[in-house]
Each structure stands twice: as structure tokens, then as C-alpha cells.
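Figure-free illustration: sequence to structure, shown twice.
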Amino acid sequence: MSRGRYVYVVRRADGGLLAAFTVKYELATWLEHYKPSGPAIVSRIEDGGNAPWAQPISLNPQTLEPEK
């Protein structure tokens, strides 16, 4: 099985880590079943060799697409 391109991270508004995933489908399933008590901040970051320099990309929690 090949590695995923991204690591998906879910944080609370105060910055506390809630969850992290390497598969977008697992993130989507988790978000459907787990309803954070406050706003959740979802982002992705490149995995692999570029990770030390990669910047997180904010994602829309409903669509999981990058926010503009």
C-alpha cells in the first residue's frame, strides 16, 4: 500500500489536538461520527521529504476542500 500525500489534523479552537489521519476518507468518517463540542479547525500538511518546510493548509470542515 502506498503512503498518503498528506497528514490531516483536527484541532480545537484553542489549538489542542483532537485527531490526526493519513487517509482523507477516515477523516471524513471521523468528522461524521464525532461532533466536537466547539468549532474544529481542520488542516492538512504534506507528508514525506518536504514535511519540515511544508505549511499547513486550512480545510473547510464540511467539504474538506482548501479554504480560499
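We now fold a second protein in the same way, so the two outputs can be compared directly.
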Amino acid sequence: MSNAMVKLTSVKVNDPNHVGQAREWYYVANINNIGIKSTEEKSVIIVNDELSFYLEAYEKDKVIDKGTLSKKYKYIDLQNKSIKLDVIVTENRGQYAGNKATVSFSFEIR
């Protein structure tokens, strides 16, 4: 069994369409079922030579606007690289219903 070092270097919200308020954005990042926070680095057990990413981004209001992304990569393809994964969140009601925001998760893999 081997491990990878994974760092979540940043989480950035691009919301030009008024999906959420600045201080109401939240996120979840899990790699092979290990939770990681922004700027945090963790050792992750490599399962079947893969890293599985599960990401959530949501704007917390009365009816939560939420986007998710699940993606698997071969560890060898990511080793010693940086990647950016985007989660799309769609406004679900009100005058901005249907508008989209992008939440970008950037990772460094060693």
C-alpha cells in the first residue's frame, strides 16, 4: 500500500451571475474518502492505483444551491503535478434562477 501527498492549494469562487453571497459559500473536498481543507496537505492511501476526488460546493440559503463533482484519476498521471477541478453551482430560485457559478479547487499531488 502506498500513499500520495495531496494539498488543496486553493478554493476560488467565480460568481459573476449572483448565485450566492460572498460569505455564504461552503465546500467539501474528499480524496479517497479523506477530507481536506483549503491550504491543508494530507497523506492519502492510494487505492487501486487511483485517486478518487469527491467535491461539493454550495451556497447556503433557505434552499441550498449545490454542485458536486466525482472524478477518478490514475495516481501515476497526477504524480508531481497540479490540477484544477471545477464544480458548477446553479441558482435554484428567485430572479437569478438558472444562473451558474464556478467553484475551482486546485490541488498539488506528490
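Summary for the second example: The mean pLDDT is 94.
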